Amino acid sequence: MNAIEISNLTKNYGEKQALAGLQMTVPVGAIYGFIGENGCGKSTTEKIICGLIHPTSGSIKLFGKDYTDAAVRSSIGVLIESPGCFPALTVWNNLMIQATNLSLPNKADAVREVLTLVRMEGAAGNKYKNCSLGMKQRVGIAMALLGQPKLLVLDEPINGLDADGMRIMREILVDVARKGTTVLISSHILGELEKVATHYGIMRHGKMVVEMTADELERSCPTFVALQTKDLATTKTVLEKQYKQVLTDEQQEFLRVYDAESAESVVKYLYAQGIIVTALKTDKIGLEEYYINLMARKEGK
Ligand SMILES: Nc1ncnc2c1ncn2[C@@H]1O[C@H](COP(=O)(O)OP(=O)(O)OP(=O)(O)O)[C@@H](O)[C@H]1O
Ligand SMILES: [Mg+2]
Predict the structure, then answer these.
(1) Which ligand has its closest atom nearest to the C-alpha of 14?
(2) Ligand nearest to the CA of residue 80, numbered in listed order
């Protein structure tokens, strides 16, 4: 079964068409990385899924039922923008209020459980306003997790977090997914997303460009031989006589050969031309480069 099935979704804000016939499928249990340039419609889609705004047309099914179904609605946890917390109250009290709003039977137990999930057991007594950005994001996720949602929708939850904050967030998402919650997460930090996502959806101009699993991404990312020499410019010219796909990497540190049989064959060829390879590795492009290349192709560059 799919957690989310969207077909032909459109959304107009006045004259502005934010969604232009979106198709989207999120399988149950996925950590679905939702990607696309600023303004392509990610937040709009997430807000519609969560019932915060109405679509213009189209159909949305959540766990096989129409998204307006009351039972389905109550099984969604959401963090879009900042969590609705009272600044002067403690983390604990904010969560207890939310647990009361949701009429949870064992409020204190439920709060303790989500605090453990977001690794905030020790910070329950802190006032919300005194929490760091990373802690506030985690409180937001704890709020969204109260009531054990089947689907968790997060809009750019790792923005502005430091390396440790991002690591903790990754661990939380993996934990949450392991416990059976499907996660939809939008982010521009593709290197981070790649560490946790099991599925991807890449949007552009209000439409889905491609959806794929992490395995499919892995298979469609080309491998290359990367090497360094004392003179990259000359080496590049020499390599181009033998290979068709030779590029300099973004940092201008390595030359990449995409169409070589093996690393060894490139080294041998260069040696025969009097060029010594000083560093060598084989590597694969990642999500970020895949995305940049895909967008460039769409722009017709
Ligand atoms: N309330 C609104 N009124 C009018 N236009 C809006 C409104 N909200 C969003 N838009 C427009 O709809 C389009 C999609 O916006 P949306 O916020 O969904 O994009 P996004 O993919 O989340 O972008 P970002 O990566 O910057 O968060 C944009 O062109 C935006 O300007
Ligand atoms: Mg957005």
Answers:
(1) 1
(2) 2
Do 136 and 83 form a contact (C-beta atoms < 8 A)?
yes
Closest CA to 152 of 122, 184, 177, 125: 184
Alpha carbon separation from 70 to 57, 74, 75 (Å, rounded): 20, 6, 9
- What stretch(es) of the chain map to CATH 3.40.50.300? 2-218
- For residue 37, the ligand closest to its alpha carbon is 1
pLDDT of 188 strictly over 70 = yes
Query: Ligand 1 test: best mutation among 9, 44, 46, most atoms within 8 Å of CB?
Result: 44
pLDDT for 301: 62
40, 185, 295: which to mutate for ligand 1, most atoms within 8 A of CB?
40
Which string of DSSP letters, residue by residue, matches 49-69? HTTSS--SEEEEEETTEETT-
Which atom of ligand 1 is found nearest the CA of 203? Answer: 21
Total-model pTM: 0.90
pLDDT digits (tens, 9 = 90+) for 212-224: 999 999 998 889 9
Taking alpha carbons only, the member of 22, 29, 20 closest to residue 59 is: 22
The yes-or-no verdict on residue 149 having pLDDT over 90 is yes
Using a 6 Å cutoff on CB, does residue 81 contact ligand 1? no
CA 207 to CA 218: how far, in whole Å? 23
Tell me which of 3.40.630.30, 3.40.1280.10, 3.30.450.40, 3.40.50.300 is the CATH number of domain 2-218: 3.40.50.300
Q: Tell which CATH classification among 1.20.1070, 3.30.420, 3.30.70, 3.40.50 matches the domain 222-284.
A: 3.30.70
Helix, coil or strand: residue 22: strand
For residue 13 and ligand 1, the question of a CB distance below 6 A is answered with yes
Nearest ligand 1 atom to the CA of 16 is 5
